[in-house]
Amino acid sequence: MPGWTRLRIGPPRRFTRNLLLSIDCLGRHLLVKYTRDPAEAREEIRGHARLARHYRVPTLHAHVRVPGGCLLVYERLPSGTNRGLLLDLLNADEPSSELHAYIRQLTSAYRDVISATARLTDPTHVVRKLYWDRAMPGGRLDSYYATADFSVADGLIDIPVSRLSAYTLNINGRLLNLDWAVTLDRLRAHFGTAEPVWTAVTQGDPTDVNLAHPLAWLDYDTAGTNSILGEFANFLWYTTALGGWLVPTYNPVAFTDHPATFDHVPANTPQLRRAEVDHTTSTIRVDYTLRLSASRRAAAAAYWLQLVQPVAERLWADTDLADLLRPYLAMRILGVYNLADLAPEHRLVLLARLAEAMSPDFDPTAYFSLLEPPCLVL
Question: Cα(362)–Cα(371) distance, rounded to whole angstroms?
């Protein structure tokens, strides 16, 4: 067929430090990924092989060393403007039957693989990139915060984060405390222990842009033997905070092919209603409204009911799940974006969310807005 001889190259897309390029050649639809870090490319190749034994992933046709990095050539799954990802199902005013069916398929696949591969694992043998490495000396906690003492919220609450422990936080009427230095030390200590963790074979970074629609798993540099709790915290935080609010706000280029995302940012951005400090009583008052679109709320709730709860009942029946999730959630809050780089009102809301997560009465169902079960479409 004459059309098969044509070479069509799409516009390059940048995601973090990587470049993606779509190519049609000899009737094959390809996605070429350029990665600068050879070690990261090797991890992705190994991760893809591990994941392919358990999940649907696009074929990796080739990987080639080139000057300055590595090219990985994948099968390109069907996609287009505002289609091809879980993200596109979430970019809707109301949850669709298609979204509910997708989450059922997603959680069913995870339950099967976790059931088959779950085991207690020495943390030195766990994929460490998103949690352990970021808490280690020289990791993101250090590079972001070790020598920094930034304002809680410039122009709103001009108190250094190092002095938060001297104040009572009144957050939406709840009296909480947050000791910045102690919080960082707790995370370093938690991810510095040799205590085994429950793991399973997962993708490790289950975001709405790393899950294709129809269901397939994308992006493999964190794929392999992952902490199950880390997998849960990642999906829940991304679905309820990063994907609909922070990432499109601070990395809009990642959504070039999915512009409908920006239409829904207001529905997923918390509203800061009050921010004030009373130095006479050493009290910081923060009132905010957590906003989350109906589609994202339904996806998170279904994920919790259909995956987190059943797995927790099997693995941690006698343990408080909130205590187990807390350090992973805190690392997602602190270890993705440097809070000092964010707008003051966003930084303040995230510090409030961190205080809520670190509170002894942390309740994930309330925290992630899961109290009202989704209306499941059967």
Answer: 14
Each residue of 27-71: pLDDT tens digit? 788 888 888 888 889 999 999 999 999 999 999 999 988 888 898
Tokens 């990987």 map to which residue? 63
DSSP string, 120-131: EE-GGGS--TTT
Q: Categorise residue 138: left if φ over 0, alpha if ψ from -120 to 50, beta otherwise.
A: left
Inter-residue contact 8 to 23 (CB < 8 Å): yes
> pTM of the entire structure?
0.93
Of 127, 156, 104, which Cα lies nearest the Cα of 286?
156
Instruction: DSSP letter for 279, please.
Output: T
CATH topology assigned to domain 2-75 = Phosphorylase Kinase; domain 1 (3.30.200)
Q: Taking Cα atoms as reference points, which of 253, 287, 364, 299 lies closest to residue 101?
A: 299
* Tens-digit pLDDT profile for residues 29-40: 888 888 888 888
The continuous run of DSSP H or E covering 257 comes out as none
Instruction: Compute φ and ψ for 292, nearest 5 degrees.
Output: -150, 130
What's the residue count for the chain?
378
Structure tokens at 269: 């951005």
* pLDDT at 1 exceeding the cut of 60: no
**Exposed, middle or buried, 194 (CB in 10 Å: 0-12/13-18/19+)?**
exposed
CATH fold match for the domains 2-75 and 86-367: no
Which pLDDT belongs to residue 373? 47
The dotted CATH code for 86-367 is 3.90.1200
Residue 273 binned pLDDT confidence (cut-offs 50, 70, 90): very high
The full set of domain ranges for the chain reads: 2-75, 86-367
Buried b / exposed e over 26-53, threshold 16 CB at 10 Å, is eeebbbbbbbeeeebbebbeebbebbbe
Residue 88 corresponds to which tokens in the numbers above? 């596109």
* 4 close to 29: Cβ distance less than 8 angstroms: no
E strands, 259-323, are 271-278, 283-289
